[in-house]
Amino acid sequence: MNDGTSENDCCYGNLEAQKRVIDFLVIGGGIAGLSAGARLSEHGHVVVLEAEEALGYHTSGRSAALFEKGYGPPSVKVLNAVSEAYLVSNGYLSPRGLMLIGGKDQREVFLQDQKDLRLQEIPLEDAAARVPILNPQTVGFAAASTAAFDIDTDRMLQDFARVIRGNGGTVLTRQKVTSIEKSGHWIVQAGDSYEARNLVNAAGAWVDEVATMAGIATIGIEPRRRSMARIPAPAGHDLTGWPLILGAGESWYAKPDAGKLLVSPCEADPSFPHDAYADDMVLAEGLARYEAMVTQPVTRVETNWAGLRSFAPDGTLVLGPDPADSSFIWSAAQGGYGFQTAPAASQLVTDLVTGSRSDLDALSIAALKPERLCA
User: Fold this and answer.
1) Are 67 and 84 in contact (CB under 8 A)?
2) 160 shares a domain with 16
3) CA-closest candidate to residue 43, choices 193, 200, 195
């Protein structure tokens, strides 16, 4: 992945960032930070600090990269719906499709997933025609939709970074934040020192650590690990037209990727902020659940990895100024919905910061603001 930086960003831009009071200092160079930074750059000087050597290094770089409008809790579905036009108009989406399958003993959980995802049940022979490795001895139910799309996540990251730079902002890597204090303005140490009027907390799994450094009450963001394995195309099949295949109960999924197949156990195991790696036992269990529904065994795993998806206690995003200090702004708890909600989520952050009217309804806004989590 292109890390989105240049010599000017890492050197000259860094010096420039220290010479003036920054309007919006964004901590985190994943999709949450870059999208919020891009929107806010229309309203002031933005500097983004990313601790790693590349943008989108952690969760954003390990995403399933799927847009499915019906995926997520109610407030997320609202963000999905509002984001769709932006994703389409910028050419970030390409057809993928989604197929839900359930074992013969999974009728109830299958029906609940089908309802939640608004999928159409299809005959098993149709499912087998789309994914010829499905095992007729174990697969009992199938449903599908064509309204699921791959997201060009790398281009989204780079485009948002480009907007920030185009509006006079700076995107910096290798800038790990070590201390934050407030004395009139925010003073942030990250190798260099930065002074800012507003601090945007978009640090992914580290958002509560950033809040603690800033003297802001944490809101219980929990990182959860999700693992992934890349395997060769089963039996040498051409996977080009295959949909993402989801096991009932979100017990596993498989997604074509550059001629290979990505398989995930769909775990959401509580973790701590770190450079995550796959748990071998959890990965093996997920691959076994996948194998139980197909005719081709997994004979080789080419590579594996894991990412940390961060969740608020109620499972939805945390967006906007902190109620105790409006100059501390949350863009956090994206869970597994970061890319598909980014256009609407970043716009809501900006609307709440600038006092602009939002396109979202009042109930959805209330379900996303940090106030809901502050006792």
Assistant:
1) yes
2) yes
3) 200
